[in-house]
Amino acid sequence: MPIARSGHDAARLGKTSESGGGSRSVPPVDEGQGEGDPRRTSVNRDSVPTPCERVVRDLCVFCNKTARNEDDLVVGQNGPVNSILFIEDDDQIRLALRLVLEDEGFAVTEAPDGRSGLAAFHAAEPDLVLLDLRLPDLSGFEVCRALRAMSIMPIVMVTAQTDTNDMVAGLEAGADDYVTKPVVPKELAARIRAHLRRVQLQGDVATTSAVDVETFGDVEIRREQGVVVKGGREISLTKTEFNLLCEFADHPNIVLSRDQLLERVWGYDYLGDSRLVDAHVRRLRVKVEDQPDEPRLIVTVRGIGYRLLR
Predict the structure, then answer these.
(1) Where is average pLDDT lowest: 75-84, 171-180, 264-273, 297-306?
(2) Which CATH class is domain 7-198?
(3) Tell me, what's the pLDDT at 272?
């Protein structure tokens, strides 16, 4: 997977060492990130139990390398740093993006394949997962479905730039967002921050809503419980689908453009792709409409966006 880097990133990642008679690439160490750097922590691994004992041990490549308890927090100047699990089989890409994301203030755990990624998820308890879809053992779609069954944290998938099928299949598997190849590190960091901000603010949605139950046809939205009911039966929505439906419910009969939805639901004010909105609306219609191909609840306003009819 190619990676687009700025000149600064390329220069930084290209440092070499010529000791020992040869030239070899080495990860650079930024000044100020030695023993005194707040993002670097050390753990006495002899005294801390392996955090992944409930997972099949031979699936987890991290069990003997990391441990996480109350004292093993990655702390920055403003408190705990958000943790990212990056599941990617290409060693060079993992190294490059890890360095970039660490420079952006994130703590990054790596996994080279799907099985070790699932095990590392239990061990690291990340705030967000960055998931490549082309993995050597399990497919990225399988990993995404397994992660979504265990957690509602954001999942951002990495897919080929022109592969719309991968994008749609990933969203159907439970991903919240996608980035295309080649990956632009600064854009990726901005997207990650947007998702983490959205998660942090989601608790406010229920408390600020003046209405406990909102009804649209045979669909009920119960925000305080985070539940949607259709025809008397609870339906399963991802967190992003739930937020999208709530955004429509906040503006009944009003046309919302794709750009407005990207900003309000995903937190993107300039980074978004309208296909992301279209794919989630399509998935949402499958779950809340009687006939998704002929929607009567969430309708398309051609050339503008969508509106929820009341």
Answers:
(1) 75-84
(2) alpha beta
(3) 62
